[in-house]
Specification:
The chain is built from 16 helices and eight strands. By secondary structure, the protein is an alpha/beta fold. It has three domains: 95 residues, no CATH class; 173 residues, Nucleotidyltransferase, domain 5, CATH 3.30.420; 91 residues. Strands 1, 4, 5, 6, 7 and 8 form a six-stranded mixed sheet that branches. Helix 4 crosses helix 5.
Length: 438
């Protein structure tokens, strides 16, 4: 067989010499150019007050033990990773050894995915405070006004499989199996002959895996009362005919992530997910509120978000733009009492010939509801409401397309909220770095 890669003898080419030893003088600062975006992220991070991240560190002057990794470096890595759509600790650890911008940030500090992953979700209070400080700075700079905000929820795929959801009877059986496994493992490890071939690391790994499985099943069982209460509430709205057809199924909880719920996704399918709520200042397009819930609907999320925004900014919200999924008549009246105008479209009637337009007042409407319908039906109200789609919808798309808020690699609502805060913080830093550095 002929060798097709054989080159003619008179051809001169450059070939790789991988065994050639070379001496080179290099500096980590030369890894990226002077105008590379990673330098801007680091410059902003240097100005942030990270005292809350440093407080838990036990490595202090005069105390024994190895030095801790600088929280400012870890914050910068996650922020820069979020600007590039990196949402995995393993992927970030790989980039820290293979990608020049991440190597520039590390500056020779070695990191693994355990350190990165633990830091991302291990400082929830400090991260929330940092997000508030950034917003407060933008308010002081006059960038954020908060007079009018838009809110929208987006479903994000949870770190749980569809097959991990179990009914109450099955969960009870799994709990007994988990307890039996823990007891059997304890007997095994206490027997020197049977556990002679296991190293200390393998012993610890087996014990940790058994305990974590037991804890996950217990958390799933603890979710059942809430799910049953929600099912009972839903049962009142479903006809007996639909109940007989089996449209109401027995509640199930996930043994992987007890906080996850099966939700309808944007593509029409149903998968385990969480509901990420984002509030945006319509004037600046800055994210001013973040919350993560496991409710598949957006009702009852407007008032808590408005309170959060006012707490973070120190300003009062006067106009709140929402989509139809947030519509609750009682909330419209409570918002009016708080001097807040809600812009949320009314539901169109099923029979327009009998009920007329959704903007026409109903006989049982209060004065507040009549004003709300008139406001939403007016040309001025429609112009104001257009700002919701141009801000909230685009911000959600930005986080899911460019900031890594696609599928969670962590479990539980508190950790999911940390991930959402990192993405929102990176978004604000990317768009308002100049104001934060002034």
């Amino acid at each position: 067989m002929s060798n097709r890669n054989q080159k003619p003898s008179d051809v001169r080419v450059r070939v790789p010499e991988r065994n050639q030893v070379a001496m080179a003088i290099s500096c980590a600062d030369d890894l990226v150019g002077a105008d590379h975006p990673v330098r801007r992220i680091w410059a902003v991070t240097e100005r942030l007050d990270l005292a809350a991240f440093y407080a838990p560190i036990k490595a202090r002057a005069g105390a024994v033990g190895r030095d801790a990794t600088d929280p400012r470096l870890l914050v910068a890595l996650w922020l820069y990773g979020a600007t590039r759509g990196v949402g995995s600790a393993r992927e970030l650890a790989r980039l820290c050894t293979e990608s020049r911008p991440y190597r520039w940030l590390c500056g020779g500090v070695s990191l693994n995915h355990h350190t990165l992953g633990d830091f991302r979700v291990g400082h929830a209070a400090a991260l929330d405070e940092l997000f508030t400080r950034v917003i407060a700075t933008l308010v002081d700079q006059g960038v954020i006004q908060v007079k009018r905000i838009g809110q929208d929820g987006t479903r994000v795929r949870a770190c749980a499989g569809a097959s991990s959801f179990r009914r109450g009877a099955r969960l009870g059986l799994l709990l007994e199996q988990a307890k039996a496994h823990v007891a059997e493992l304890r007997t095994l490890l206490d027997d020197p002959q049977r556990s002679a071939g296991l190293s200390a690391r393998k012993r610890a790994a087996r014990v940790r895996a058994a305990r974590e499985r037991h804890a996950r099943v217990e958390r799933a069982i603890a979710q059942l009362p809430e799910l049953e209460a929600r099912q009972a509430k839903l049962k009142k709205k479903v006809s007996k005919k639909d109940q007989a057809r089996g449209k109401l199924k027995e509640p199930r909880a996930s043994t992987t992530d007890a906080d996850a719920r099966v939700m309808k996704m944007p593509d029409g399918g149903f998968r385990p997910a969480v509901n990420v709520q984002l509030a945006t200042d319509t004037a600046s397009r800055a994210i001013v509120g973040v919350e993560v819930v496991n409710a598949g609907v957006d009702t009852a999320q407007a008032e808590p978000m408005r309170a959060q925004v006012e707490r973070r900014t120190g300003r009062t919200v006067h106009e709140h733009l929402l989509d139809g999924g947030y519509l609750v008549h009682e909330e419209i009246e409570r918002a009016h009492a708080q001097d807040v105008s809600l812009y949320v479209p009314p539901k169109p009637p099923r029979n327009k010939d009998q009920r007329g337009s959704e903007y026409e007042p109903r006989p049982d409407d209060s004065a507040v509801l009549r004003d709300w319908r008139a406001r939403m039906g007016s040309d001025a109200g429609q112009e104001v409401y257009k700002e919701r789609a141009s801000t909230s919808e685009t911000v959600n798309a930005d986080l899911k397309t460019h900031r890594g808020l696609v599928q969670l690699t962590v479990r539980g609502l508190p950790k999911a909220r940390c991930v959402a805060l990192w993405c929102a913080l990176a978004y604000n830093l990317m768009h308002f770095a100049s104001a934060l550095m002034s």
